[in-house]
Amino acid sequence: MEIHYIDSWPQPYSQMDAAPYWAALQEEGLTFQRCTDCRETVWPAKSHCPNCGKRALVWEGSKGKGKVYSFSTIMRGPTPAWQAIVPYTVGFVEMEEGYILFTQFDCAPDAIKIGDAVSVRYIKRGEQTLPIFGPAS
Ligand SMILES: [Zn+2]
Questions:
Q1: pTM, whole model, 2 decimals?
Q2: Which of 1, 3, 57, 114 lies deepest, with the highest CB count within 10 Å?
Q3: How far is the CA of 32 from the centre of ligand 1 (A)?
């Protein structure tokens, strides 16, 4: 049986609007966009505010805290890198700042439930540092 190592992680597809997000992650910073006109928080990254239509989005640092909005545990990984870490849990976190972030949870599947407080930590996958959430510390 062929063994696959975790250093062969596929790298995330980075859209131009989100380049500052990926750059901040490399320094273990979690960022999101906010509209300076209507104050709405915006994620995923856009060029214009989806709420008011203005081109008035700026980047802000997140506190990295939120609540579990939903999650699902993956038992069969889609690629060898993911297969090597099953079971793993992914889902959405409702961040304190008001936006929703899709992420992986860094804990056993039965260690979280919807509404639980979670906070960010960071994990290096290949060249990219990524946010991963676990029970709030
Ligand atoms: Zn706006």
A1: 0.89
A2: 57
A3: 14
